[in-house]
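Hi support team,

I'm filing this because I wasn't sure whether my run with flavin-adenine dinucleotide finished correctly. The job status page said complete, but I'd like someone to confirm that the output block is well-formed before I use it downstream. Pasting the exact inputs I used:
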Amino acid sequence: MAAAIEAAKRGAEVLVIDANEKAGGQLFKQIHKFFGSSTHGAGIRGIDIGKDLLKEAEDLGVEVWLNSVAIGLFREMTVAVEIGTDDVEKKVEMIEAEKLVIACGASENVVRFKGWTLPGIMGAGAAQTMINANRVLPGKKVLMIGTGNVGLIVSYQLMQAGADVVALVEAAPKIGGYVVHASKITRAGVPIYTRHTILEARGEGRVKEAVICEVDEKWQPVPGTEKVLEVDTIAIAAGLKPLAELAIMHGCKSKFDPILGGWAPVHDENMESTCPGIYVVGDVTGVEEANTALEEGRLAGVAIAESLGKITPEDASVIKADIWQRLDGLRSGPHGEARMKAKARQLESFKEVTNA
Ligand SMILES: Cc1cc2nc3c(=O)[nH]c(=O)nc-3n(C[C@H](O)[C@H](O)[C@H](O)COP(=O)(O)OP(=O)(O)OC[C@H]3O[C@@H](n4cnc5c(N)ncnc54)[C@H](O)[C@@H]3O)c2cc1C
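And here is everything the job wrote out:
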């Protein structure tokens, strides 16, 4: 949406396609107030940031197609889009564009354990979609695996939605997310078991019990420490990885970086990938946060307007420098430093593979 707005603002004709029934991505599931700096919407709920983006895009005449999935990219900048939700009514259209932005976000990592395919076991993001987007409680007694910010925030939101969060399990010696989120959970009396993992899910037709246990320094289960918890839902918050298949299948060069969540397409300072005319922004280029995704989108939108001749290179360079300053600000401090280095490596890799 940010890329669309910046390009449309400068006179580009923009079409946004989204697989969901609503544009705006994860923001519409984020009912909590954002963390971060006040210039980046801290204290504002994600859902409200999303609503403002949609309104701005609409006012600028951005065309939005929903329930429309990009299923393939072809040479000559053609995108195959599958439109519709009903199998009978579904159709595929080929869209040609002069420039393309890939902003597909990220997908959830899974953890495999005995019984992990039983109904009732899902990604934490799926549980969050159920409660915050579809108003459906996934279950009444939930075990959360993982205590990064996603695990912590979704646990709290499940509690707000009326579920009993039985416990959180974390293999590391301490929680991964912000203490402020963890405190809300522990204050409600929910135990967070650090140095623990899940061994097994039991049940017939649906999960009924979870077996957890302690782990040693090498994250191996310690025999004799098993605990059985009565649960009907297990949510897994074990990190995210860039949803970069479209870009990678098309031939955009990518690089593996664990800090960014895995394989992600490399890009230049304009967010342009190694395939000319194809830009990559947001979690697709490495899992970060909504604000960095928005700024990267803005960068691509301005760069596209520049390359289409809608804005002079001089004006564009001033705006882009400003955005880069904000991006660097977001990636500074103890939580951002590793990401800052990883993103610098990504820019370097682009230069290496293109010999730029
Ligand atoms: C629980 C939780 C809490 C968070 N809290 C914060 C916070 O407080 N502050 C913060 O800054 N960040 C937060 N984040 C992170 C933030 O939500 C993401 O980093 C951000 O949404 C990434 O934006 P994006 O546009 O790259 O991807 P997304 O928001 O995931 O958007 C991707 C969009 O692409 C669509 N899509 C995917 N594939 C296709 C396809 N093939 N065809 C068509 N459409 C497709 C999807 O439907 C989706 O709408 C949180 C994340 C989670 C899960």
